[in-house]
């Protein structure tokens, strides 16, 4: 029996999480979802979509793995190959957008912020040191990601640990400092949409018509 049917039969009131009518709690929920996404591989927040602006001005999106969340610094981190297109796009224009939809939680998160590429600095080194060997291997692929190849398998993966370690030169950590978060909670008893401006000197929170 579904939860919905069970509630109908027992006369239990419709479930609404506590945060839905509370702006501060909604923002805390958004950050909690992101933080959980780092640790929980099955959470939809583990693999957010990141949009950049292409150097031709077109929007471009792709999935990444969320590696770290710092609520105090309002930042997220993911890892990428410096040779990839998104690195070039972020270097040219650091404005990015983030999107996650959690169907089970009935919660959409949209965020906007500024990305920063870290390569060869202390943050990148710590991120590399904290990565598993399996994840590191991607950065040693030859030729570079996005290169057109004649056959589907026309690329080479590193064959030993030394080759994997050499891929460190291509590794970068990208941090995104979030400026704005918009949330949408779906509920037949009334959707809830909110926007948060995260400027530490001018924090703003508003409900919006869904
Ligand atoms: C589940 C999943 C996780 C991914 N994680 C990453 C990631 O953490 N970093 C990354 O650069 N690409 C990741 N990718 C690949 C990107 O979505 C994308 O295809 C690739 O990075 C090329 O993007 P670009 O040409 O915009 O640089 C992931 C793809 C999937 C499907």
Automatic annotation (TrEMBL):
Residues spanning the signal sequence: none
SUPFAM superfamilies recorded: FMN-binding split barrel
Pfam family, one: Pyridox_oxase_2
Pyridoxamine 5'-phosphate oxidase Alr4036 family FMN-binding domain location: 34-118
Any GO MF annotation of the entry: FMN binding
Annotated protein name in UniProt: Pyridoxamine 5'-phosphate oxidase
Organism: Saliniramus fredricksonii
